[in-house]
């Protein structure tokens, strides 16, 4: 078998597995939603850690430079470090800020914001909820819609927390260079 045929996905002597369509039950759907919700939490933990680390770096730069005359190169490094710390903090904040102001029509029966906006009285929601939990196919649809929506949220949050971490490490680099110049 040639490298080119392998890159194309061709396999010699191996049959493709038969894909069997399986009905997804509510238990599996809830597990998937829980996995995706875990990704959201993980991105928020990373953003929180970046935000805390930004505070530490900001304090370190302040203590490293207070009351000291800096040359031009050191001033540039301090400004770049502060800019990186601020940008990192903004990215972390963008990850952590909840986005409840989106005003689409509240359709999902398990997403708290849709439920709260659509049903002002518990009695109204109770009957809809009771009908939902006995209709497994409809419940799986609602859970899968929420899983998809949470996946989009997790992706956006990971992008923001990733940038926060990158900018934090850039600030660390600036501090390291500043410390080398100050020694």
UniProtKB/TrEMBL annotation:
GO terms for cellular component: plasma membrane. Its main location: membrane. Pfam families: PycTM. It is found in: Cell membrane. InterPro entries: PycTM_dom. The keyword Zinc-finger does not apply. One of its GO terms (molecular function) is nucleotide binding. It comes from the Bacteria. The chain crosses the membrane at residues 75-97, 158-181. Residues 29-181 form the Pycsar effector protein domain. One of its GO terms (biological process) is defense response to virus. Keywords: Antiviral defense, Cell membrane, Membrane, Nucleotide-binding, Transmembrane, Transmembrane helix. This is Pycsar effector protein domain-containing protein.
